[in-house]
Amino acid sequence: VQLQASGGGSVQAGDSLKLSCKTTRRAFSSNSMAWFRQSAGREREFVAGVEWSSGGRTYYADSVKGRFTISKDKNENTGYLQMNNLKPEDAAVYYCAAQKIGSSWYSPSSFVNWGQGTQVTVSS
Q1: Residue 26's pLDDT is what?
Q2: Are the C-beta atoms of 17 and 8 separated by less than 8 Å?
Q3: β-strand partners of 94
């Protein structure tokens, strides 16, 4: 199972970016997908998740609610994270993950499959 994240870049505060997570069909048919992020010196933290089995129920970290949107394109086996009104504190390496086996959305150990990260830099 492979996941490939892309779409990161350097932007100004207030700008938008859309991250993509290209997967294999097997990964895409798993029960869930999520985005995490990790900045220097900090632990990897949950950003957003979507649970296919519950009709696409979404979950967001409080820090990104109202600004970020997680979605998917089934035909392209690709997941997305639309990030609007970016803030300097959103700067991090963003990772996509699939196949949730643990109970907590907030724990990276709940997810089996991971893509490589994509860097997001936000300047003020």
Answers
A1: 65
A2: yes
A3: 37, 118
